[in-house]
Design goal:
Blueprint lengths: L7 E2 L6 E2 L24 E2 L6 E2 L3 E5 L2 E5 L1 H9 L4
The structure holds zinc ion (2 copies).
One zinc ion binds next to loops.
């Protein structure tokens, strides 16, 4: 018979581990104390849409978040 082991998955880095203690404070991989809280989804600089697949683009000494859609648009638009 298999015993199911309780595991914890870090919502920040997706690392899954078996807790040794009942009291878990840190993700063993990314050391985040907030492993049980997902990161706030970033907002797209251009359309304001929130996405988990945001890419940071550096332009004009600033960092912008771009959602996949706006990234595609930007790639098709060579003028920018
Ligand atoms: Zn983690
Ligand atoms: Zn966008």
């Amino acid at each position: 018979m298999e015993i199911s082991v309780p595991t914890i998955t870090c919502k920040r880095c997706n690392y899954t581990w078996v807790p040794r203690k009942a009291d878990v404070r840190l993700c063993p991989k990314c050391r985040s104390a907030r492993f049980d809280q997902a990161r706030e989804p970033e907002k797209c600089f251009l359309c304001g849409q929130q996405s988990d697949d945001m890419k940071q683009v550096i332009g004009n000494a600033q960092v912008y978040n771009l959602c996949p859609e706006c990234r595609e648009k930007k790639e098709n638009d060579n003028g920018l």
